[in-house]
Each structure stands twice: as structure tokens, then as C-alpha cells.
Amino acid sequence: MEKKLYLSDEDKKIAGVCGGIGEYFGIDSTLVRLAWVFLLIPTAFIGGIVAYFIAAAIIPHRPPAEY
Q1: Quick check: 24 pLDDT over 70?
Q2: Is the dihedral of CA 6, 9, 10, 15 positive or negative?
């Protein structure tokens, strides 16, 4: 079965982007969130926030049959 990236419905704080990335790579979503925060700092927060919402708009929700 092919592995696909989806927004997380169970592990989400805002839109489920970090939870979905964590599920995809099989790592704790807290580590993904910490990495995201550390990447926000050099972009003065604006670039990282824009990237998050673009990711939230592009990454699809998991179809109901795949739960």
C-alpha cells in the first residue's frame, strides 16, 4: 500500500499539518512542532506562518474509508 500525506484529524492543534507530517514519517508530532517553531525564528515568523497555512490548504484530509 502506498503511503500518503494527510492532515491529521486526531492529532491537531490548528489544522493538523504537524500531526499529519508526524504520522507520515512515523515520529512524534511534538518533534515536528518544535522543528517548525525553530524554523519560524529565522523567517521572523511570517514565512513559517504563511508556509503552514499553504500546507494546510494543499494537504488533503484523509478520506473516510481510510480511517
Answers
A1: yes
A2: positive
Q: Which residue has the cell 492529532?
A: 11
Alpha-carbon span 24 to 43, nearest angstrom? 25
* Residues 40, 34 contacting (CB under 8 angstroms): no
- Quote the CA–CA distance of 39 and 43 in Å, as a whole number: 7
How crowded is the C-beta side of 37, counted as CA atoms within 13 Å? 6
Helical pair 46-58 and 17-25, crossing angle rounded to 10 deg: 70
d(CA 4, CA 54) in angstroms, rounded, equals 18
Predicted confidence at residue 1, as pLDDT, reads 72
Phi and psi angles of residue 66, each rounded to the nearest 5 degrees, phi first: -100, 10
